[in-house]
Every structure is written in structure tokens, then in C-alpha cells.
Amino acid sequence: MTSTTTVMNSPLTGKSSASPPSFDGARSDSYLTHDRGLASWIFTLDHKRIGIMYLIGVMTAFLVGGVFALLIRTELFFPGRTLMDAQTYNQLFTLHGAIMVFLVIIPGIPAILGNFVLPMQLGAKDVAFPRLNLASFHLWVLGALFLVLSMVLSAADTGWTFYTPYSTTTSTAVIPATFGAFILGFSSIFTGLNFIVSIHKLRPPGMGWYRMPLFLWSLYATAIIQVLATPVLGITLLLLIAERLFQIGIFDPALGGDPVLYEHFFWFYSHPAVYIMIVPAFGVISEIIPAFSRKRIFGYKFIALSSLAIAVLGFFVWGHHMFTSGQSVLAGTLFSALTFLIAIPTAIKVFNWIATMYKGRIHLDTPMLYALAFLWVFTIGGLTGIFLGTMSIDVHLHDTYFVVAHFHYVMMGGSITAFLGGLHYWWPKMFGRTYDEKLARIATGVVFVGLNLTFFPQFILGARGMPRRYYDYLPEFTHLHQLSSVGAFILGAGFVMTAVYLIASLRRPINAAANPWGASTLEWTLPSPPPYYNFHEAPVVTAGPYDGYEDLIYVENLQGYVPRPKDGAEGGSGVPPEKRAEIANTSKPPGVREPGVNADGDQSDSATETQKPGEEA
Amino acid sequence: MSQTIVTPIGANAESEHLDAIHQENPHLAHHYDTPRHQYEAGKLGIWIFLVTEILFFAGLFCAYTIYRTERPEVFNWGHQFLDWRLGGLNTIILLTSSLTAAWAVRCAQIGYRRALIVNIVATIALAFGFLGIKYVEYSHKFHEGLLPGHHFAPSEEAWEIESFRAKHPHAADLAEALEAYQASREKAEKSGKAHHDAKAVEGQIAPVVPSRLRELLRNPEATQPLVDIGAIRNPEVEPQEGLLRPKYAHVFFSIYFFMTGLHGIHVIAGIIVWIWLLRRTIAGHFGPKFFGPIDFGALYWHLVDLIWIFLFPLLYLVS
Amino acid sequence: MITYLLLADALPKSPQSSTFWLPKAGSLSAGQFDWLYDFLAILSIVSVVGVAVAMLYLVVKYRARSRVANEIADKTPDHNTTLELTWSIIPLFIVMAIFVWGFKGYLDLRTPPKDALEVNVTGQKWNWSFTYSNGMSDNALHVPVNTPVRLLLTSVDVIHSLYIPAFRIKMDAVPGRYTEMWFQSTEAGEYSIFCAEYCGAGHSRMLSRVVVHEPGGYENWLSEQQKKMNSLPLPELGAQLYQKQGCKTCHSIDGSRLVGPSWKGLFGRKETMSDGTVIDVDANYIRESIAEPQKRIVMGFAPAMPTYQGKLTDRELTALIEYIKTLK
Amino acid sequence: MTNSAERQVMSAATDQHQIVSDDHGYSHTISTRLMVAVYAALVVLTVTTVAVARVELGHPWNFVAAMVIASLKGGLVVAFFMHLVWDRKFNLLLFLTAILFLILFLGLSLNDRSEYQPSIDAFESAQTAASTP
């Protein structure tokens, strides 16, 4: 896969770079090595570098959040005091919740994988507003610092939901934590805004809405939620801070406020937020399963539109968090009925993924293993959601460990598993290096076992009436808690293993192929790691995102796929002559892009045919 | 073949043309093809940002609506202290600044640089005017102690505050008559005689202010400094029974200050944007080929005006 | 919609199930609940196993030998609208049926019968107190068996949530308003009560119990408590109230300082108030502080005490004062 | 979604030939007369809304009148000053979605609050009853 570039004035560095040498040269001049020095990373406008910086930041936060989780599980190993007193325990589970939700899983897939892959899948050079993208990352760092400030002062002990009047009357540092979440809200809005404009305006010629990869559909749906829901979180947290500072009496009942109104404000954001967490995971799985089954996705339209359906319906259901909070019966009925509507698009996705695997050629590499793990774990998570959506059942199960198990199955089992699958899938593209496949498969198994061992006992605990956020519990629940704590440590071990072999892979030589998995979306037409400008011109798209599997053949020494050479036609450019004419006069397809040279060409003779003369303007 | 295919015929001319466009338009970012493409992307971007602003204020409008429907007496009492004349003047000022903003966009599109500068300066001046009037209103409220939360200690008896007196001119003299009536009633009860002739007086004005508040109002430092005393509930905030004020009257001023304050912050942000645009206009960046930022700055400004258009009747007019 | 309602009624009523999943059922609504829970559990297990088997079967059957073999997947249609519509509509019906069953159960839970026995419940930072019809209050909930009981909940500081797993019911106690819940216990015995809404350091020790009396047992418990209240010497009654009314969570009797001042040696002592005036602690100051705690607070203490106005009878007030006198 | 794609094709196509001509005409310029007219209408509406507010129209009608006038003024600003009339229809769709979600949030919260308001009133009346000995 060659990529020859022409002279162009690179706006990033302001100086025009001479025409870099061809194939291997392009790879040495990748986005990682294009600029040197810390400043070139901190003030970069390149979406790929921003994606990598998000990866480092989010993974550090994930480590901190994970350590807190292990501390909580150790405390709960024995009834009564094991490690810490009640106040510290409350602060720990609040921080575990706040860090995991606001710092890790909401930015998670969109900010890391989305930032890295979206422009490349669009055949674009960058997202629509690169500076806004950088501002989003800096706001993430600022928000994280505020959470650290809250930790340093005296960590908030209100739970990540900050329910009033507890949050307005406790003496712990609630304001830094809420202000941190407020800033992280803007970081999320900017990412969403960027993705919507990019998908609308930067699509290459020929890529209509139904020729877009499903990962972009899911990022589009997520961006809609981020843009429409996060502002309400902003105003809620501002009101909470004002309530603490000036006793404005909106949420504090002693001053005429209404705590249930706070719950409405909070959950109006927080339920769509759980779809911000899971919809990108659907997108990643919709990319992995067809690529590793070597077969076109089944029911593309249904999957694409079901992402949108989930995004829109997500705004009508927030009341199912409040069935036992004093919410009226009428509102409860409305919310419960609408909650069940969301189960349908989710079920469609699962059935379509399984139908994709039917009669495919399935390769069980690590990304596919994570996808299969996702299918099992997410189905359990989704179905237990139906328990909690049923009003009479929720009365018993609300605020018990059943809820804790449900959302960990969906977030931990859903988002984080899909994130790891996506990370392994795009790792060669990100760093140009492959990871140790055997170790990766073992780690996937360990994570899968740890996950189920940690959270399945919690379903039983919850059903038997163990309330959540309990520092101490009745002796009858002991052995289930111990089972769960052991599972938590296995899960932690799985993540440590993953981190070790992934970081170790960074020291390997840059020898990853441009298309190691034989996928047919645009980012795989670029070398690994890709040049800083991605495509010189937008590639012309003539087929769906999952149509090209039979035209790619695996080259052993390259460890990757290349287009199948057509003998005799046009020097093996892979397109029969009659097709070429038909393409040339396509009216300029939507996406408002100029048809232009596609730097991609057949490996054998591309150097001569598309080499640009040096004196290009 | 994978999703992409190779060169359509005659592509070389296209890519030369592409680079030519980039040479002509210095402000055209490398990942856009034409100025129109960059402009439309920017327009879509600013509209999405305006959507987030609308939803940001949605929270406040929701809090307003809920407290208005459930505690109308608080709003009826509270809004008497807002001077609709100042609010009206502010609305006119913001509408004019919207006009000058729209005019600025027109001048940028046509390329009249001097007129563009005049319009931007006018918009900034009007914005400062708006903030000036806001300052007058706020200082008036600070002076009278009509502040949110535990600072809520009206510094004069309810009916002596001039804006209240402006609405109820007869209130003051009624107050003395009522106090005299109360005193005579107590004397009468002591001596066992019934008292029935003063129903009209009592009906118009609420019962007398208890002595405890009178002594609280006397000391000037009733308004404590703004400090995070989340942990310690201040007794003064406990609503005073039997006062002319309804219970939880301070909630009105909480909503008033939060809404107009947040709107004021957006006006200040708007001023900063306009000053930045003014600097770039003077530097000669904007012309018929590149006027995006002016258009988007004006769109944001129109939204700030739009929010005030709804704030004005909701807070100042509705009785 | 009507068809579902008829359908729901026609289904068999649930057997008494104390299955692997759920605690022993102790109330009328628990029976209804267990049946729907078991139905959902079976439905979920069947679905999950179905998905897992389908997934594993496909993986095993269509596993590619190796990448070098370059196998091509066979041509299959990439969408089949009828199939996709069917597996959208069928789950829709199932899910709507579940909604209707859940809604009917919820409606029963939220409409207490008219003649129910009324008990007031007050949630407070870290204990529950139940006030009965004769004004007497206790830390445990005593109810007669087989009679509907209506609980009127409120909280004095933050949101708590009264949760009785054996009866499968839960309702938040929200400060600033009343919320209600009801149940009808079917079996005498003791069931545990938890607080289900996070309320601070003592959230996990805010436990209590429901004592379901045999028929007739409730009435004599009530009268016997009443007699005990009247006959008990004042200091002993005061000591009991100190435990039951939650005074012990904030006032110690061994001199150590908690949220509030310690009662040891309190009576007759000189105390400086927050506004600097010095008073000596006599019966009226204690009586006034119990009714209106915010009025005069000792220097250096937070005004965090809720009012007990109307909660304690006059005899109980004097009993508390007598008890404080004994604490030298 | 597809209709916006078609429209982009047409505008992309028209923009195709524009590349050669000077391409400043890609956004509508509002005429001075229209601007001043819209401004005048807004001022008149402001005066009317103040006047209407002084007239006692009974409970809901005052509020409804004020909102209608405010929406009219808002509509004028959005349609003309913010070019939504001549802009891509997608931007109008965005604005309407924002309003729709505002109404959704407002409506459901208000509906729920007014449903359980009696239990708040009951508590407050019990509170005042208990506190006046």
C-alpha cells in the first residue's frame, strides 16, 4: 500500500515540506515523528495526537478509578470495618463513580478512538474545528485537576449523583468536584459539536449517509446526545454550587427547594449520558464483527438508524431512575412505557450482529474475542435493564446491588470491553506496531472471567435485598461479597496484563501492515502509522464500508491485506476499464468535496504512475 | 476493490486547482476545499453551539416555570421590586445592538470596512450600556438587601421600599392606621369590649411586622459576607411568619439574580468576542471572501438578545 | 392495550416462592411480585443462553482456517427486511406485556386501601422512628398481621428510603414533603428494614425491624407500651427516650462532644450562647431547645438539630429533663 | 437524512461551477430596508408587550399574551437577523430541536411536580400547624 505525497504547504508547521520520499519514507514521517518535542504535542491540532493524549489521560484516570474500586471491594470483603471507616468509604465510592463516569467512560470511546479514526474514515485531513478539538482536551485536563483538587481537600462524599439536600449540607469539598464535572461537560460538548460538523461537511465524494461506516453513525448519534443533554448538566451543577454558596433555595427543602426537582434535572442529563457511554461501543462492535467475519454487516440500515433511535428515545426515559423517589404515578407510567421502547433498537443490533456472523469466515483475533465477550455481557446487562424498567420490580430492586450489577455489566462489560476491542483493532494503525497476540487472548479471558465473577454475585445480592453504597452489611451477604471481591482482583489483573503487553508493544519495530485485519474502511488505506495529513485529497468512495472483503488478499510476509491485483487491466489498478469510465463522470457526490487524486494505488507499480512532478504549485 | 478506488481521469488538473484556491484564500484551513465549504461548516458549528446555549438556559426557564406555577404568591410579591422601565430600556438597547450586529454582517459581506468598524463599535457601546443599567438595578437591590439566600434581609420595612411604595402609594399611611388599630384592639380586649369596625383596614394590609424583625432591620450589617457556609444553616434564613412577605420569598430573588446574572455573563462574553472581531477587522482580515467570524459572532449576539427578549416579560412584566 | 389487561388477568397467580433469588416473601404484594420476577428471570436466562449458543455455534461452524487461506465468505443477502421487522415487532409485544404487568403491580403498590392502619415514619440521620396512632413513637415498626398498614414518610434532614426486602417495597423519605407506602403482611415474625437512599456516614447502620404480631398481639403490645410509658419512673422513661428518639446520635452522656453538647453535667451549668449571652441551663431552656432548637444555640455548635415540636408528649419532655438531671 | 444529502448534492453541484467565478455570493446579504423594518417591528412589539402587561387579563391570559409577543419577537430575530429564512433548512431543524427538547424537559418536570405538589402542601400546612402552639 503506497502513499505518495505532493508538495503542499503544511498549515500545521507553516513551512512547505519538500516532497517526502515514497513508501517507507511516508511511514517514517508519520504523525508520531512529524514534529518533535512536548510543545508539539501539547499544542498540536492533529486529531490523531489529540486522540493519543486522550488515551494517556483517560487510561491514567481509569487506573486511579480502578484502584479505588479495588479498595472498596477489599473493604467489603468482611462485614464491619476492614480497612477504613465509613466516611473514607463514602468518599472512595463517590470518587470511583465520579472519575469513572466523568473522566473515563463519557470521553472514553468518542474522544480516544473517535478522535483518532473519524477523520480517517471520512477520508478527511482533520476534524472540522481542530482548535476546538484541542480546547476539548485541555478542558478535560482542567476538569480532571478540579477532581484531584476535590480529592486533596476533603473528597466529596455525596455519590457521583450529588443528590441534594445531602450535597448542599455536607461539609466535604463538593464544589471542586461539581465544578470539575461542569468543565468536563464542555469538553464533551466540544467533541460532540466537532463530530456532527465533520460528519455533515467532510464526507468524501461518493460517501452518502448509507455508505458511511457504522462507527461514524454511532459517533453521530452520540454527538447528538452530547450536544443536547450536557448543557442541562452544566446548569444543574451551577445551581448546586449556587445552592451551597448562597443558599438560593432551588433544591434545598429547608429553603423552599425541592430535592425531587434536582433528581429530574440530574437524570435528564444522566440517562442520555449512559447512552453516550454505550452507543459508541455499539459502533466499535459494528466495525469489528464484519471485519473479522470477512462478511458484509447484516441489516446496515437497521443498525445505523437504531443508533439514532436510541439517541432520541434516550431523552424521554429519565424518570425510570426515580420510581421510588416520590415521583408521581402518572410520570412513572409514562417513563416506564418509553423505557421499554428503547429495548427494541438495542435488541435489533444484537440480532443483526449475530446474523452477520452467519456463513462468515470468522477469525478469532483479540478484537473479535472482545466483541464476542461484549455480546454475552451486554445481553445480560440489557435484559436486567428490563427488570429495572418494570415498575413493580424496580420498587424492590431500586438502589440495591442489582442496579450496581446492571450498570457495571453494561458500562464495564459493554463500553470498556468494546473500548478494549476497538483499541486492539486500531492499535496497529495508531502506533504502527502489533501487540503480542497470545498474551492478548489470555488477558481477554481473564478480563471476561473477572468481570462475570465480580458482578454476577451482585445480581443475587441485589435481588436478596442488599442496598447499595453500604459500608457495612448483614452477615448473611458475606460470601457473595467475598466472591465479588475476588472477581474484582481478577478483573484488575486482567487490565494490568493488557496494559503491560500493550505498552511493551510500543518498543517493537514499526512493522505493522497498513491493513492487518483486511477491513475495507478508509483508514485502512493509509499506512500504519498514518502521515500527519492523512489523505492529500479525499478518496472517491464507490462502495459501502463493508463491501470490499473479497477483493483483499492476505500477503504472508506483509502480515496484512492488499487489494487483489486484476491481471491485464490498467496496470493492476484494481478497477476494470468500463467501471473507470462510469466513475469519472459521476456528478460531484455529496460531501461537498472536490474529486481528487487518491494517493492510494496498487503496490506493484504505483511509484511511477501517481508520482507528482516536483514543481507542483 | 476496497471502499476506495484509484484516480479518475484528469485528476491532476483538479488537485492543482485545489492548491490554487488555498493560495488565494489565506484564511482557508487546509482540510477544507473552498471558502464556502469552510463557511458552511462554521455556520453549522455555531448553530450547534447556540443549541447548547438554548438548552443551558432551558434549566433556568424550567426552574422559573415550576416555582412560578407552584408558588405564585412569591412571584407576585417579588416582581414588584423590579423596575419595568429599566427592563424595557434594556430590551430596546439589546434590540438596537442586534440591529447593529446584523448591519455589521451586511457590511462585512459587501466589503464596506469602515461601516463594519462603526457597527461593531456601536454594538460594543450598546452592550456596555446594557451592563450599566444592569449595574444600576443590581446596586439598587444590594442596597435594599433583596439578595438571594441567607443574605435576604430587606433593609427597610416591606412597605417603605420606594419601588413597593410606587406600586402601592396608599400602603404607607395604611400601615400607621393598622398599627393604631392593633394597639386599640389589644386595649379593648383587656377591657372586654369587642372591636368590629376596622375590617376594611386589616383586609388591605397584612398583620403588623413582629418586633424581632424590626430590631434585626435596624442593624446595618444584616448582609453577611458571601462565604461557603453549606455546613452551617443560618437561622436568619428561616422564613418569618406573619410578615407581608410570603414564605420562601427569597427564592424569587435567587431565580432573578441567577437568570439575569448568567445572561449578563453571556453579554460580557459577547463584548469580548466583539472586541476580538474589531481587532481582526482593523487588521483587515474580513472581506466578501472571508466574513465567517463576523457572521458567527453576530449569531451568538442575536441569541443573547433572544434570551433577554424572553427574560424581560417573564421577570419584569408578568403579574 | 385492553387485550393485554385481559391477558394479564388470565395468567395463573404466583405460587409462594422463596426461590434462590428472592428473600422470604412476607406480604400480599410480594407474592404478585415474585411471580413476575421469576417470569423475567426465565425469559432473560433463555434469551442470554440463546444468544450465547447462537454465537458459539456460528463461531465454531464458520471459523476460518487461517488468514493465508484467504477464504471468501459465501454470498448471503446483507439485509432481509421481513426478518428484521419480525425480530423487532415480537420483542415489542413481549416488552409491552411486561410493562402492563409491571404497571398493574405498581398501581396496587401506590393505592393504599381506605381502612389501612396509619403509622407516621420519620427518617433522620441514621435512625428511623415510627409514631403510632396514640402519639407514642418507637424505633421499630409494630404491625398486626393480615391488616393493611399505611406508612406516611418524611425526613428531617436528607433523603432516606424505607426498604423492607421481605415485602418487596421501598419508598424515599423526602424532607419537605410526605410520601406514602402501604403493605399487608401475611405472616407473623420479624423482618429487617434498611435505608436504601445514601444518607451519609451512618447509612449502612440505619437499620430497623418490622415486628408483625399475631392477631390481637398488636393491641396488647400497644396498651402495654402505653402502660409502661405512664407507670415508668420519669428518669427511666427519659433514658428510654434518649435511645429511641435519636438523641444519642448527637448528644453523648459521657461528656464527649458529638454534633451537639454532651448531657453529662449539663443541668444547672452556665452556658454561653452563640450571640455571647450567658445563661444557666434550666428546665425552660431545655424545653425550649427541644421545641425550637435554632432559637438559642450553645457557642461553637452547628444549628443542625431538627425540631421535636409536637413529637414528644409533655410527660415525655419532663421525663427527659429528669433524666438529664441524673447525669452528673 | 437523505433529503439533506440530496440538497448537498445540488448545492455542491452549483458550487462546482462557482469555483471559477469569485465565490463571495455564498451567503445571503440582508437588505438595509428589511433590517430597519424588522428592528422597528421589534421595538413596536416591545412597547405593546409592556402595554398589554398593564392590562389585567385574568390569570393565565397575561402570561400567554406575554409569551406570544415574546415568541413573535424571537421569531423575527431568528428568521431575519439570524438569516434562518435564507439558510440551509438543517440549521432551522437544529433550532427547532433545541426548542422541542426545552419543551420536553419543561413539560415533564412541571407535570410531575404539579402531580406531587399536594404532598408538599400537606407537609407545609402540617408544619405551620405544629409550629403555632
Describe this structure in words.
The complex is a heterotetramer of chains A (617), B (319), C (328) and D (133). Helix content of chain B is 67%, strand content 0%. Chain B has helices at residues 11-24, 35-70, 72-78, 84-110, 113-144, 162-167, 171-190, 199-204, 211-218, 250-282, 292-317. The radius of gyration of chain B is 29 Å and the shape is elongated. Chain B starts with 10 loop residues before the first helix and ends with a helix. Chain C folds into 3 domains: 28-63 and 80-109; 117-228, Cupredoxins -  blue copper proteins (Immunoglobulin-like), CATH 2.60.40; 233-326, Cytochrome c-like domain (Cytochrome Bc1 Complex, Chain D, domain 2, Orthogonal Bundle). Chain C is built from 7 helices and 12 strands. Chain C has helices at residues 2-10, 28-61, 81-110, 217-231, 234-244, 283-291, 314-326, and strands at 117-124, 127-131, 137-138, 141-144, 148-155, 160-164, 169-173, 179-184, 189-195, 208-213, 270-272, 278-280. Chain C has a 5-stranded mixed beta sheet with strand order 3-2-1-5-8, with no helix packed on it. A 5-stranded mixed beta sheet of chain C has the order 4-10-9-6-7. In chain C, strands 11-12 form a two-stranded antiparallel sheet. The relative contact order of chain C is 0.10. Chain D has helices at 2-18, 32-54, 59-81, 89-131. Chain D starts with a helix and ends with a helix. Chain D has one domain. Helix content of chain D is 80%, strand content 0%. Chains in contact: A-B, A-C, A-D, B-C, B-D, C-D. The interface between A and C is large, with 93 and 84 residues.
